[in-house]
Amino acid sequence: MLKSLQNTFETIQQDSSARVVMIRSLVPGVFCAGADLKERRTMSPSEVHTFVNSLRYVFSFIEALSIPTIATIEGAALGGGLEMALSCDLRICAWGVIVNARNFLGEAAVFGLPETGLAIIPGAGGTQRLSRLVGRSVSKELIFTGRKIDAREAANKGLVNFCVTAGEAHKKAIEIAQQINEKGPMAIKMAKKAIDEGIETNMASGLEMEEMCYQKLLNTQDRLEGLAAFAEKRKPLYTGK
C-alpha cells in the first residue's frame, strides 16, 4: 500500500491540471491506525529501519507537494496514521457517530501517537510536525503519555482546521477544495512555498522568500486575468499560466 501511495502522489505532482489533493479512508471507523504490530514483531531491526524510512519519505513527499493537501479524518488516526495527516496542509475531522438502519455514515475522529508505550518514538515525522503545529509543550505531553484525544480536543489544540458532524467531513473537504480551486493556481503554489519555506527561517529570510514568490507571479497571465475579472465584475478564468 505504501508503494501505491508513493506512485499516486508522484503522478499527482507531475499532473499540471491537479489543484488540490484530498486524502480519506473508506474503511469505517479508521482513517489510518498505523503499522501492523503483529507484522512488526517478525521484522529485523534493519527491516524496521527500511520500513520507517519509506514512511518518512512518502510523508515528506506529501508535505512537499506543490499543491494543497487535505486530510479528511473519520475514526482513528493513530501512530503513522496521524503522522500522515500531519504531513497534509489542512485537516478536517468528524465529531460524533451517525448510524442509520442501512448504513454506517461516519464516526468521530481519535488522534494519538502511542509509540512510547512500545518503547519507541514516532519515527515518520511525528515529533517534528506535531510540535511545529501545536507547540512544544502540547506535543511533549501527547507523545510522552501516548494519550488519545478526541476531535474536539484536537480542534481546541489546533491539530485540525475544522471539526464537523460525523458523516460531513468529506463534504467539508470538498467545500474547502472548491474554494481553493477558484483561486489562481500559481498563487496557491507560491503561497504554500512562501509559508512552508519561510517559517523555517528568521523573519528577514522569510520576507525574502515571500518577495521571491510574489515576483514570480507578476508576469503571469493569471494575474492579468484576475485584475480584468475584478474590473469587469465577473469570475476569473484562471489557467495556471
UniProtKB/TrEMBL annotation:
Which keywords label this protein?
A: Lyase
Q: Which InterPro entries match?
A: ClpP/crotonase-like_dom_sf, Enoyl-CoA_hyd/isom_CS, Enoyl-CoA_hydra/iso, Enoyl-CoA_hydra_C
Q: Does the keyword Lyase apply?
A: yes
**Tagged with keyword Lipid biosynthesis:** no
Give the domain of life: Eukaryota
Q: Which SUPFAM superfamilies does the record match to this protein?
A: ClpP/crotonase
Identify one Gene Ontology CC term for this UniProt entry: mitochondrion
**What are the recorded Gene Ontology BP terms?**
branched-chain amino acid catabolic process; fatty acid beta-oxidation
This entry's Gene Ontology molecular function terms read: methylglutaconyl-CoA hydratase activity
Homology family: Belongs to the enoyl-CoA hydratase/isomerase family.
Specify the protein name.
Enoyl-CoA hydratase
The source organism is Arabis alpina (Alpine rock-cress)
